[in-house]
Design goal:
With about 325 residues, this protein is an alpha/beta fold. A hairpin with a 6-residue loop joins strand 5 and strand 6. The protein contains 14 helices and 8 strands. Helix 7 crosses helix 8. Strands 1, 2, 3, 4, 5, 6, 7 and 8 form an 8-stranded mixed beta sheet that branches.
Length: about 325
């Protein structure tokens, strides 16, 4: 997925959650990532753990991942909303146990997609209440942090062994509240976040990834020269800087009208449209990293060269417009 590969790169062994709102296509995104992910030709497997899904969503997941299953690269664990709560608590643990065996016994790179962790946390709260345990914040048990950490921290790599376990948990923020205990505690444990935007979704953008709110703390350890491409990190920094400036230009246009903007501000608005329609929009089909970075260059080259201050001249001459 270009929105992830270019700006919030997922590194082998990382734990990178997706923060979403109710009604956003987070399940579709998670399933698409599971269907399209690769490990650069190395032995690879996907573990998909669905918790609290409707039967319609469970069927959609099975249909989307059918090709991956046929290739012998998929382990699918589904807990539907009408299944016992205790099974919902066991589902991610079973998924991670299978992942550790595939990674460290068979030497595969394993991606574990877990959705929805909010449903999992609610199951933990329900069992805690049934046991008569002392409730904590918003009636969740006081050990919710260590419980989530016992799942998320099972990712990583083992020195001397070829495999890895990468975890992509997906969670919905009740009421869109990022300070809710589940996203709040998840943010403390994990290494960044991919945030989905209701505003982009309302504009018809899929996937509606808000790049300015998203972050991959391990991106610099897994991208750049010798890993992805020598222009990747500088290009990502320029795209994010341009998005921030485009947001300011859009706010100014709301105040003074588009006619009151400078030519440079209008170019930033053109950049944002090119970014949304080119780089981010990806309804279906996988993109190579080379294609993703080409689309990122197409977007930033809408701007004058004088505005591309985060891109060295050697990269502009090699990939962009010559001086």
């Amino acid at each position: 997925m270009s929105a992830v590969d270019a700006l919030t790169t997922l590194v082998r062994g990382q734990k990178l959650p997706v923060f979403s709102h109710a009604g956003l296509p987070h399940l579709r995104l998670a399933t698409q990532i599971a269907a399209q992910a690769t490990a650069g030709g190395a032995p690879f497997a996907v573990i998909f753990a669905g918790m609290g899904l409707t039967h319609a969503d469970a069927d959609a997941v099975r249909d989307t991942l059918d090709a991956r299953a046929a290739a012998g690269e998929l382990t699918l664990l589904i807990n539907t909303a009408d299944d016992p709560v205790i099974e919902r608590i066991l589902t991610p643990r079973l998924a991670l146990t299978v992942a550790e065996d595939l990674a460290f016994a068979e030497g595969r790179h394993v991606l574990v997609v877990m959705t929805d962790m909010t449903s999992y946390a609610e199951a933990v709260r329900e069992v805690s209440a049934a046991r008569g345990e002392m409730p904590g914040r918003r009636a969740y048990p006081g050990y919710l942090y260590s419980d989530l950490a016992s799942l998320y921290e099972r990712c990583g790599r083992v020195r001397g062994r070829p495999g890895s376990v990468t975890v992509l948990p997906v969670l919905t923020m009740p009421g869109g509240d990022i300070t809710h205990p589940v996203p709040d505690l998840t943010g403390y444990i994990t290494e960044g976040q991919i945030v989905l935007s209701p505003d982009l979704h309302a504009r018809g953008v899929y996937p509606p990834v808000d790049a300015l709110s998203s972050l991959s703390r391990l991106m610099r350890h897994g991208a750049g020269p010798g890993r992805t491409r020598d222009d990747h990190l500088d290009l990502a920094a320029q795209v994010l800087a341009a998005l921030a400036r485009a947001r300011q230009a859009a706010e100014l246009a709301d105040l003074v009208g588009p006619a009151g903007l400078s030519d440079v501000d209008r170019r930033y608005l053109d950049f944002e449209r090119a970014y949304r329609s080119g780089l981010v929009a990806q309804e279906e089909g996988a993109r190579s990293l080379a294609e993703t970075l080409r689309l990122a260059w197409d977007a930033v080259l809408v701007l004058p060269r004088s505005e591309l201050v985060l891109l060295p001249d050697r990269l502009l001459d090699a990939y962009g417009r010559p001086s």
